[in-house]
Each structure stands twice: as structure tokens, then as C-alpha cells.
Design goal:
By secondary structure, the protein is mainly alpha-helical. The chain is globular. It has one domain.
Length: 314
């Protein structure tokens, strides 16, 4: 127990330092972008990014992190913060622009040169595919809740850190096709994201339903935990499953409702003149409107020229 507390305090210090550094870099870049009228990041996006960092700190460096070895509900809350709540908030903050303007230029040039290689581009295209993102999130959720694998995270500090990092990375991958923080257009229609979110609820519903309705304790390690929270091991397991079921359903339902509202809303008028489409010539009146007057009446529109020989004769 002493070794676990020592490593937990050290881990909390480094995680807090990394999150504070990310916050300062983002704030520096966001303040620089405020000077640009057409390239700035809205204030609500900065608030969303900071809230996402706060959720990561609560899950990995706050006193909640010390309870995951004693109560399954706290352990499940960690997973929800790292995978379901923090990633969409961070991606909504459009971190690419502020972080790019907040980091030193030499460091950015070194990163860009390494990211332009052909193997990295091919790997990025595979990772950005929605099918890969969905599979990464679903497999991470299922594998880490297998009892034998679950015990690795409780018995080893290294595996515990790998578990938390995998949940955060899987959450960022899962939400990236939904939120699309990059400026480029999506290759997939928005209607497909509704199916994407619906299919993502299936592994969560199966796992949470199993934890809620199972009549035995799935993770026996919590049988020996101190029952200082008024819950038995089975009640703790049911509470953790209900928490996961409710939180995931609400978050995915909100995301699906936003996509449905966007699909049903009228199309916005384009802001750039090159995006305006010229209507086809359905009638002579419309054709007359879009025809050059000089081509229709060349004699009337041509400038009148005076013959110099006629003026001399006069």
C-alpha cells in the first residue's frame, strides 16, 4: 500500500504538470489567434478544451484516482471521463490551431517534416477511417473489462497507466470522425454518423447490462475492499454498470440529436461568390438575364464612330 501511494502521488504530479503545460500552450496560441479576424477560435471552444483537460485531471490525478482500487464505481467513472466526456470536449476546442500557434516554430517545423513522410501519411489515413476508430474504441472497452485483463491494471502500475492512456487515445479516435476538428471536408456523409453512434452503443449496452443484471461479483478483488461507502460488492458493481449505461446513452443521444437537427435544418447560403451556382436557362426570360447585352445587340451597343471624310465634305 505504501508503494502504491508513493507511485500514485508521483504519477499525479507528472500528469498535472503535463496538463498545465498543455493549458498554457493552448492559451498562448489562442491569445495570438484573437488578433486574426478570420482565423481565430471562439471563446466557447477554448472553454470546452479547458473543461476537457479538467476531466482528464479528475480521472487521473485527483483524489478520485486513488479510489479506483477500492470501488468499481469510481473505476468506471474514470473510464467514462477519459473515453466519453473529455475527448469530445477537447476536439471541440479545435486544439490544432491554438497549439500550433503556441508552440515554438522550430519544434513545429521538426514535427511537420516528420509527418510528411509517406509511411506516416498512409498510417494516418488508416487511423482516420471511421471503421478503425469504431473498432479501436469498442475493443479497448471490451478487452480492459475482461476479468483477467482488468486485474492487470489493479496489480501493476505500468499496466494501470497503459489502461488509462488507451482509454483516452481510443476516445479521441472514436470522436474524431464525429466532431472532425480538422478543417478539411469529410469523405463520409453526415447521415452515416448516426449509424456510427448507434453501433457504438451496442458494446456499451452489453457490458453495462451484464454488470447490472449479473447475480455474482464479476471482479472478486472488490470483495476484500473496505465497504466504507454503504455499498456491497454486488451493489457497487450494479451501480457502476448503471452509471456507464446512463452516461453513454445520454452523451450519444445528444450527439445524435445534434446531427439530426443539422440534417433537417435548411441549407445555409454560401458565403463565397465562387460557391454560388448559376441557375440553368429554363426560360427565355432567365436566358435573357444571363446573356451579355453586347452579344445580343452588337449594333446598338457598339460605340458610334464619325467618318472623317464626311466631316471634311461638310
Amino acid at each position: 500500500m505504501i508503494s502504491h501511494i508513493h507511485h500514485g502521488a508521483s504519477e499525479s504530479f507528472w500528469i498535472s504538470s503535463a496538463l498545465i503545460f498543455a493549458f498554457l500552450v493552448y492559451l498562448r496560441g489562442w491569445l495570438r489567434l484573437r488578433c486574426h479576424e478570420h482565423d481565430n477560435v471562439e471563446g466557447w471552444r477554448a472553454t470546452s478544451f479547458i473543461l476537457g483537460l479538467l476531466f482528464i485531471w479528475i480521472a487521473m490525478a485527483s483524489p478520485l484516482a486513488a479510489l479506483d482500487h477500492n470501488i468499481l464505481t469510481a473505476h468506471m467513472l474514470q473510464h467514462l471521463l477519459l473515453m466519453t466526456l473529455a475527448p469530445p470536449l477537447i476536439l471541440l476546442g479545435m486544439p490544432r490551431k491554438p497549439l500550433a500557434h503556441g508552440l515554438p516554430q522550430r519544434f513545429l517545423q521538426a514535427i511537420r517534416s516528420s509527418l510528411r513522410s509517406e509511411p506516416v501519411l498512409q498510417f494516418a489515413s488508416v487511423v482516420a477511417h471511421p471503421a478503425f476508430c469504431w473498432f479501436a474504441a469498442a475493443s479497448t472497452l471490451v478487452v480492459w473489462h475482461i476479468p483477467s485483463v482488468f486485474m492487470l491494471g489493479l496489480q501493476s502500475q505500468m499496466w494501470h497507466e497503459a489502461e488509462q492512456a488507451s482509454f483516452l487515445v481510443a476516445g479521441l479516435l472514436f470522436w474524431s470522425p464525429v466532431i472532425r476538428p480538422a478543417a478539411g471536408p469529410s469523405k463520409w456523409p453526415e447521415a452515416s454518423m448516426l449509424l456510427y453512434l448507434f453501433l457504438a452503443t451496442l458494446p456499451c449496452d452489453i457490458l453495462s447490462g451484464f454488470l447490472v443484471f449479473c447475480d455474482r461479483v464479476v471482479y472478486p478483488v472488490f470483495l476484500s475492499s473496505p465497504r466504507s461507502y454503504g455499498l456491497s460488492a454486488l451493489e457497487d458493481q450494479q451501480c457502476a454498470g448503471a452509471l456507464m449505461w446512463t452516461c453513454v446513452t445520454i452523451v450519444y443521444l445528444i450527439a445524435g440529436a445534434l446531427f439530426t437537427a443539422r440534417l433537417l435544418s435548411p441549407q445555409r447560403s454560401p458565403q463565397r461568390s465562387e460557391d454560388l451556382a448559376i441557375p440553368p436557362f429554363d426560360s427565355p426570360r432567365i436566358a435573357l438575364r444571363h446573356t451579355d447585352p453586347q452579344e445580343m445587340y452588337p449594333q446598338k451597343m457598339a460605340p458610334h464612330r464619325t467618318d472623317p471624310h464626311r466631316m471634311e465634305a461638310v
